[in-house]
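If your schedule permits, I should be very grateful for your opinion on a structural question. The matter concerns a single protein, recorded as an amino acid sequence and a row of backbone structure tokens. Could you please explain, in whatever detail you think fit, how the structure tokens follow from the sequence? I set the record out below, with my sincere thanks for your time.

——
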Amino acid sequence: MKEHKDNLIKHYIKTILNLTPDREQLLFERIAPMFSIQSALKLQDLESPGPASEGRVWYSAQAIVHSYYYSKSKDAIYGTQIWKKKEAILFASSLLNGTDRSHYVQVLEGGIVTSISYPDMLTIRSEFPEVSADIEQTILQNEQAHQHRIQLLNEPSLARIIRFEKENPLFCSIANLDIKAMHVGLKRKSYSHIKRKG
């Protein structure tokens, strides 16, 4: 698995960052020991709410990942974001501001995932401006996804389901009904009923 981890890190450095070969090697040597790799099972929670210092930046080359939030007051689960394969998974407020993490991060399929702790990522970010720029780009993409989600949740239920399934075909082919429903702000029964009627 170490070889797999090293290959993923090298791929990220070569394809995402614009570095000279010397800087590539320096970054690899600095960052590789900080990364961990693990096998994840289908529907395994990689992360649960807690202090920012225990948060991690996740990367899954083999599985789609999503996040969800549990509201105690409403006793309900709400889907909050979907990440495609090979996208960095992080929460900016926790990484940059130290805000407690409030979301669960879950893989939809089994596979290998890698991660680096928020404190280690902040160290690398301060040492390598190229990594900092990539993190900023990831944060921007997450913000755009959040704004898109707000727009989606303001649509009527049937339109919301249709649009969600059209925009996320791979996710919807893998996710169970409960997970699809949580991402459009509905319960499983409502999702099925509205879809049947539509």
